[in-house]
Amino acid sequence: MVKTKLTLISSTEKEIINFLENGDKRAITLLYESYSDSLFGVIKKIISDDDTAQDVLQESFVKIWRYAKKYDSNKAKLFTWLYRIAYNTAIDKVRSLKNKSGKEVQIETSPVYKITSNELNQDVLDIRTHLNTLDKKYQIVINALFFEGMTQQEASDELDIPLGTIKSRLKIGLRELKKIYNP
Q1: Ramachandran angles phi, psi of 123, nearest 5°
Q2: Where do you find CATH 1.10.1740.10 in the chain?
Q3: Which of 10, 38, 163, 174 has the greatest number of beta carbons closer than 10 A?
Q4: How large is the angle between the packed helices 78-102 and 11-22, nearest 10 degrees?
């Protein structure tokens, strides 16, 4: 005895599949109207925050539209395909949020903010004194770039010195300072 597989597809689902295959934008409207509540329920089982779940639902529909041409009704029912996209998007979001929160700088535990004055290189603190030993033309450029926070182009404009000259003076000035700090 041979059993035949009987699948019932609603007319709306047939219409959606047809629209998806043809790249018709009406598919997204019908998909949203027909499946958004169910997909939101799938996402809410993974993500409890409503706002984040809504974002994931939106991302899911963007992916659904992007991959619409890849849908094959012979491989999976439409809802199964939609479910997988929404589920995987929700899982990706959870992973992304975990990675992001794990990489946030914890100021209380960071050693960067606990440097004592004993740990600072005292020789480098007198940089302005050593800067004064350089020719005035190098002092002006280094001061503008490092202490006033200008870019090379801004220093060129402000000091009315060609950009190439700014770069040369910076290079020479830093080389002279290096001789002082690293004899």
Answers
A1: -65, -30
A2: 11-102
A3: 174
A4: 60
